[in-house]
# Entry
Amino acid sequence: MNKNLLNIRPQLHSNIQNIDLNNIIAPTIPIAIYLQESENLAAWASDDVNKLKKVGITSAHIKDLKERIDACRSLQTEWLRLKKIKPSTQKNWEKVQRSAISIRKELLLKYNYAFRNNEHALHEIKKLSRKNTAAQLAATLASLYRIGSKYHDLLENISFDFSQLKTIEKLADEVRETSSEYRVSFPEKDKIKTLRDKSYTYLKHLADEIKNAGKFVFAKNNERLKGYEIAYFKKKKAHFKENMVVL
# Structure
């Protein structure tokens, strides 16, 4: 991920990146709504800057807030884009996984019938995993190949197509390879999600500072005070009251 493509100033990007993972604040409202409320706060505080500067909030803080909003929005947009994209590695893995699950089901059905009168053979296939993780699928396919080769005569009795053994042997390798390639594609998505969360945290720190200043300065001015309160929660509370059933 190229930070220049997101139009984030290098120093701002560095400030966001330097936030410790343990200090990340989880969003309590949808990011899109929070960004809009932060923009509203920036506009509202701009009108009050002459009074806010008495408690240390200046036009520089408001400019910084707008920059943090833009950075968070850019990272949110990139995160949503990555969430929607299914990389070719993921598509390949899902295709191979479906094939592996399908042939496992088919072979277990055939093996169960072919081995119905052989307690040892049945015991071997009962131990096989039905889980769909890459490791379990690959191991199960390898075991199916081994068991099929071991009980060749029992499978012959049901006219088993032994070319399927070569198929699952090859498929077991494909499961390992494609799942490995898919896992390698995770870091970029995880990286942008973490950076988005850090940018939200960085934005919230300043937004809260401005809100607290506004609430203090306009504690006795309800008309200006409302601009420093969280509209999202006020609307939810109002909606709850409107729809509350009185017993």
